[in-house]
Specification:
- The protein has 356 residues and is α+β, with helices and mostly antiparallel strands.
- The mean pLDDT is 97.
- It has one domain: Jelly Rolls, CATH 2.60.120.10.
- A six-stranded antiparallel beta sheet has the order 1-19-16-21-14-13. A six-stranded antiparallel beta sheet has the order 2-3-10-5-8-12. It has a five-stranded antiparallel beta sheet with strand order 7-6-9-4-11.
- The longest helix has 15 residues.
- It binds 1-hydroxynaphthalene-2-carboxylic acid (1HN).
- 1-hydroxynaphthalene-2-carboxylic acid binds next to strand 3, strand 9 and strand 10.
Length: 356
């Protein structure tokens, strides 16, 4: 951009008066805002942040004695990005929260146009029901609630369960296409046995006459046991990505596309002692630590922050912020999600490795 000399005060005065006049016609001068609109690279209100589970677990459990899941509808502590307080966002386009469901509770059935993912952080054996089918959830499971499907949750185990919710709420808000309604009863009727969707669509097979009607994966629980086993088998090939270790993306088996249309989901293995190379991408990413411990260096040089993490911690890296993952004393496994499929569908997504 070429430098220009500042205009004369009288010219500035004339311009201000002009802006005032045209404002009455619902008009505004682009030239005053252009350089803030079309910027050379992403500059986000979203800040890097980490939530240590050990530091917040008590607060999550305390919510369990202050309000029931039924009264709250969903008893969730929002993971608020500190750069966007009060906006219920973890990144500019996505929402995340930690949901608690106590033994014996039911979170009543409803549906909405926002798509949701659940990533199980603590507990075993609670369920979610989606469109007439229940799935029992275990730590590390990735569970999908597709847009406009009835869903309710319950906990028939004897321990609390906590999962991370990820939803495309800010994205849907931007597009003004939020619709929602409550089911007339707390729990929806079930029409298929537990495990049906995984057997039908998640075994490298599809029903012979399967037709793709919606973009969301027909598999709605991707059990951690299977994902972990895939990573463990793949590691024997010793083909490590310098930035990501071993990284897989969850896909819709009927289309080969991302499992959810608006949210990309990933699982990666960093072997013990892994020291990742610098990486950045245009999709702000939320990480949940499934196993192990390590740290992520966020940013460059003096401005770099070090996020030390261990099992059950959550951290977020904003768009285009360089970062490097390290696994210290053990193998580490990271789940992550972002708005990558949206950016890719629109031809916007970028990434860069190393010092670029
Ligand atoms: C929702 O429906 C759930 O179904 C969780 O568990 C979190 C946050 C905002 C709007 C709807 C759920 C939510 C939500």
């Amino acid at each position: 951009m070429n430098q220009q000399t500042a205009p004369d005060p009288s010219v500035l005065q004339q311009r201000r008066a002009y802006y005032e006049r045209i404002g009455r016609h619902k008009l505004a001068p682009l030239w005053e805002v252009l350089h803030g609109l079309v910027i050379p690279e992403p500059k986000s209100a979203c800040q890097p942040a980490i939530w240590h589970y050990a530091a917040i677990r008590d607060a999550i459990m305390e919510a369990g004695s202050l309000i029931t899941a039924k009264e709250a509808e969903r008893r969730v502590l929002v993971l608020e990005n500190p750069g966007m307080p009060g906006q219920s966002k973890i990144t500019t386009a996505l929402y995340a929260g930690l949901q608690l469901i106590m033994p014996g509770e039911v979170a009543p059935s409803h549906r909405h146009t926002q798509s949701a993912l659940r990533f199980v952080v603590e507990g075993s054996g609670a369920y979610t029901a989606v469109d007439g089918e229940k799935t029992l959830m275990e730590e590390g499971d990735f569970v999908i609630t597709p847009s406009w499907t009835w869903h309710d949750h319950g906990n028939e185990s004897d321990r609390p369960m906590v999962w991370m919710d990820g939803l495309d709420i800010p994205l849907v808000q931007t597009l003004d296409c939020s619709f929602a309604e409550k089911y007339p009863e707390d729990s929806q009727p079930l029409s298929r046995p537990v495990g049906d969707a995984l057997a039908r669509y998640g075994s490298g097979l599809l029903p012979v006459d399967h037709e793709v009607r919606t973009p969301t994966s027909p598999v709605f629980n991707y059990p951690y046991r299977r994902t972990r086993e895939a990573l463990e088998t793949m590691r024997r090939a010793e083909e490590w990505d310098p930035c990501h270790g071993l990284k897989l993306q969850y896909v819709n088996p009927a289309t080969g596309q991302s499992a959810m249309p608006t949210i990309g989901t990933f699982m990666q293995l960093l072997p013990r002692g892994f020291s990742g190379e610098r990486y950045r991408c245009s999709d702000a990413t939320v990480f949940s630590v499934v196993e192990g411990e390590g740290y992520t260096l966020v940013g460059d040089g003096d401005a770099a922050q070090r996020f030390d993490w261990s099992k059950r911690d959550t951290f977020v890296i904003p768009s285009w912020v360089p970062h490097r993952h390290h696994a210290t004393n053990s193998d580490a496994v990271l789940f992550s999600f972002s708005d990558r499929p949206v950016q890719k569908a629109l031809g916007l997504w970028r990434e860069s490795r190393g010092n670029r």
